[in-house]
Amino acid sequence: MNRNVKYSIVVPLYNEAANVTALYVRLTQVMEGLDEPYEIVFVDDGSADNTQETLYEIYESDSRVRIVTLRRNFGQTAALKAGFDVARGDIIISMDGDLQHDPEEIPGFVAKIDEGYDIVSGWRAQRRDRWLTRRLPSRIANWMMAKLSGVSLHDFGTTFKAYRRETIQNVQLYGELHRFIPALAAWSGARITEVPINNPPRQNGKSNYGLSRTLHVFLDLLSTKFLLDYSTRPLHFFGPLGLMATGAGTFIGFSLAFQKLVLHHEIMLQHGPLLFAAALLILVGIQIFCLGLVAEILSRTYYESQGKPIYVVRTMRSHDTQFTVAVHDNVSRMDQAIPAARVVNDLERFPGSDMRATG
Is the pLDDT confidence value at 258 over 50? Predict the structure, then answer.
């Protein structure tokens, strides 16, 4: 792995043949101004136009360009993940390939990363999209994501973000979860901020986004909220629901039994539907509670079988060499499951340590 690369620019593309050359020219002008080694990773997400041929022409003229071509259109999340997996830079910057993200704003992201942040997200403060089909649904979705995830960002949906390598390459992405990368990374203690960016209108091609994606975003939001809060303790989610349903059914059942046995009411004639509701609530409550128990077993199996920790360590220090070696061995066995861990001995000093151990 080439660790000399400082910056990796990851650009997913789908039918952007008309934009990719201009984007490449602007990117190279900006990145050369930073005076650090860089690479540009273009991910062709199964384009049906001449995007691939245009990329090959660029590739032949510039050794800093890398191309990943997917077999079909897998979607933006998969394309971004493919780019993240092959990126070699210490800082990884993702952006769209439709020229609605200005490459000239990359230095602003880099400056924020240099301040110590792990993720810098773009904020389209002045959007120029259609109000009803793009801006209104986006505003509602961003508000919901901020409230449910606890991450105070104005714009989760933009692809224009900068990440530290160790932060992004250990975030697993599925479906359309690229919007929720800040929320997923925040669980492991990532420091996140945002910077205002321009939102120029698309000049060529047509947008691949529409109102139909709003429902998908909402469903992904629910799944992300569940994973963030209950992935290691699912019974805390299912348990109260099951107990409430079972408790309500039991209360109704005892009430009907009292009326039948003490007051001698005709329950089936007077409260037949309520009796069936009580039985249904008890059965449903037991099933939900059992679902929580099964989820607990699956959660333990998932974490223990893969050696995944339920915590993330930022830094470690130790005067004991054996302690340092043991931590290295654990990280190796867990396939680098502690993404932000930096293990040092007393010969390596740096500020910001959150944990110390002395032998």
Answer: yes
